[in-house]
Design a protein that fits this description.
By secondary structure, the chain is an alpha+beta fold. It folds into two domains: 1-95, no CATH class; 117-248, Outer Surface Protein A, domain 3. It is built from ten helices and five strands. The strands form two sheets. A three-stranded antiparallel sheet has the order 2-3-4, with helices on one face. It has a two-stranded antiparallel sheet with strand order 1-5. The model has no long low-confidence stretch (mean pLDDT 93).
Length: 248
């Protein structure tokens, strides 16, 4: 492995000399094939990032990443897990924080796509819960549900490139929260979250009961609107297929 990564030249003496191809050339064939395979892995996992960077910077990123984070997995699925970290720390990429966030967004999309499947709750399940049990109800989310946080217009840039359009300039603003999940048709979806919905999602992830979720809504709407707003979020999640189960 050290030989393939250019960190050693000791293995060359274990290679037999055959024909007109030298030991170094024979090892070089494998080393090149190894790097090409790793490059293809990053290219497939991060197609939009690759287009955003362009060929020259993408190649520079790949070479630097392979040196900084040699593959420690038998599967290539996790090889680029540290790519967002690499982009946030290494020049010249860390001069543009949007790059790290684009990589992070694409890795979350991969996680969402690969997440385990489970049953999904529907309105019939909700109606089956006695009214007096609603305050104690706990919501469990589908395994694919993820949250993406960014202070940059990352998703807008990603979507523009995906649609073969020129991306907007990278702009920093207030933190944006995006909800990602895989729907019942096995398609990955994402959308931005408002403050009240984000607060409620965090409560669900914390294991809060429905009564506590309702209390959290009082920071965003009047007391008279709390029940309506909380149930509206709940029904939206059910229609999207992000609720795994309702426990009471």
């Amino acid at each position: 492995m050290a030989e393939l990564l250019g960190q050693s030249n000791e293995f060359i003496f274990q290679v037999s000399q055959q024909g007109y191809i030298s030991r170094a050339q024979r090892i070089g064939i494998y080393a090149n094939a190894y790097r090409i395979r790793l490059r293809e892995c990053i290219e497939v996992d991060h197609p939009i990032l690759g287009q955003y960077l362009g060929d020259e910077l993408f190649d520079k990123m790949v070479e630097g990443y392979i040196r900084a984070f040699p593959s420690n997995f038998s599967s290539l699925r996790n090889f680029a897990d540290n790519l967002p970290r690499f982009l946030s720390q290494q020049q010249p990429f860390n001069d543009h924080p949007v790059l790290s966030d684009i990589a992070g967004f694409e890795r979350l999309l991969l996680f969402v796509f690969d997440a385990a499947e489970s049953e999904r709750a529907n309105t019939a399940d909700l109606r089956a819960i006695p009214t007096q049990k609603w305050p104690e109800m706990i919501i469990r989310l589908h395994p694919s549900v993820q949250l993406f946080r960014t202070e940059w217009n990352v998703v807008e840039c990603w979507q523009a490139i995906k649609q073969k359009q020129i991306p907007p300039d990278a702009v920093k603003s207030r933190e944006n929260i995006w909800l990602l999940w895989r729907n019942s048709e096995q398609l990955t979806e994402f959308r931005s979250l408002g403050d009240s919905e984000y607060s409620m999602i965090m409560g669900v992830l914390n294991g809060d009961m429905f009564a506590t979720l309702c209390e959290s809504m009082m920071h965003f709407v009047s007391e008279e609107e709390v029940s309506e707003q909380t149930v509206e979020h709940l029904l939206t999640w059910m229609r999207s297929g992000i609720i795994r189960s309702l426990i009471f």
